[in-house]
Amino acid sequence: MHGKTVMVTGGTAGIGRETARGLALLGARVIIVGRNPDRAKDAAAALTAETGAEVTSLTADLARLDGLRGLASRFADEHDRLDVLVNNAGGMSPERRLTGDGVEFTFAVNVLAPYALTRLLLPRLRAADAARVVNLTGGLPDGTIDPANLQAEKRFLGWTFAHYNQAKTALMAMSHRFAARLEQEEITVNVAYPGHAYTPGNRATPVRAFPYLFRPVAPLIRLVGPLLLSDRAKSARSSLYLASSPEVQGRTGLYVDARARPATWPDGALDPRAQDAVWDLCERLTALTA
Ligand SMILES: NC(=O)c1ccc[n+]([C@@H]2O[C@H](COP(=O)([O-])OP(=O)(O)OC[C@H]3O[C@@H](n4cnc5c(N)ncnc54)[C@H](OP(=O)(O)O)[C@@H]3O)[C@@H](O)[C@H]2O)c1
């Protein structure tokens, strides 16, 4: 990865930070993205000290379209090409809530942000030699996608993680469509399922976000979580593999599991009707057409 420029969203903590560390250890120049400038600068300095690589930071709220636009424009001011974009940041809300742009939050951070950032950074990805985009899925992305409920307009089943699961399936549908669209340009778009890790994201999950059956044991889950889910290096294995391995050079439309083995795409993500609906909504909400 020497000489390569890589951006990792959500690289200040959790799985993204592990991914950034792994890519820096391989010699890449890494730009991590978080919301808080001090936290982002501290994380970049710590990763530089630890790896000896050039790690810098940019700050943006990826749940906002102006945040995404500002991030892409600041990156473009400072760098003439982007070799790897890891759309790692995600999240979920226990309730249906809207972002400042009026977009449902879980859809905004897990689907719209990776779409918009990839789209906005396309000129810099095109300037690289065989650029890679890696998108992180999660939850149980094996259900169907309801095109009329992408933003939980009809119902929000947050307490079963159903909406988060659907958002991650929609991210996969969008990624699959993006891979096909960019195939001729030699930009690859692949999806990684990370391993589970005890991160700021799951530490912050309120009890009311757990499925009803699990709520009584939520405090116990929090207690054993750090013990059971402590190996953060494992959680970044799949994203590191897709971002850096020569085995996947030039290969697009791949989905790999937490051990970086090829996995079967969920039917819901391959459904052309669902792909159309997700793609159209991303285009409409961002006014960015690929
Ligand atoms: N953890 C798991 O067990 C697990 C399992 C399956 C899938 N996943 C998926 O893997 C990815 C990483 O998960 P994680 O648990 O490591 O995430 P996390 O703990 O929630 O992520 C923390 C990182 O994301 C950044 N971030 C969060 N929201 C942001 C926003 N709106 N704008 C900019 N940056 C934002 C944080 O930056 P700040 O410095 O600003 O806080 C921090 O760098 C996510 O897509 C998640 O859905 C996780």
Could you explain how this protein is built, in words?
With 290 residues, this protein is of the alpha/beta class. It has one domain: Rossmann fold. The protein has twelve helices and seven strands. It has helices at 14-25, 37-51, 65-78, 105-120, 122-126, 162-182, 200-203, 218-228, 232-235, 237-244, 267-270, 272-286, and strands at 5-9, 29-34, 55-59, 84-87, 132-136, 188-192, 255-256. Strands 3-2-1-4-5-6-7 form a seven-stranded parallel sheet, with helices on both faces. Helix 6 (162-182) links the parallel strand 5 and strand 6. The model has no long low-confidence stretch (mean pLDDT 93). The structure holds NADP nicotinamide-adenine-dinucleotide phosphate.
Overall residue-averaged pLDDT value: 93
What number of structural domains do the residues give?
A: 1
How many individual β-strands?
7
Helix content: 40-55%
Order of helices and strands: EHEHEHEHHEHEHHHHEHH
SS field, number of helical segments: 12
Low-confidence stretches: none
Q: What is the third-level CATH name, the topology?
A: Rossmann fold
**Small molecules bound in the structure, each named once:** NADP nicotinamide-adenine-dinucleotide phosphate
Major sheet: order of its strands?
A: 3-2-1-4-5-6-7
Q: Major sheet: size, sense and barrel closure?
A: 7 strands, parallel
Architecture per CATH nomenclature, i.e. the level-2 architecture: 3-Layer(aba) Sandwich
Rounded to the nearest angstrom, the distance between the terminal CA atoms is 28 Å
Strand proportion: 5-15%
**CATH homologous superfamily placement:** NAD(P)-binding Rossmann-like Domain
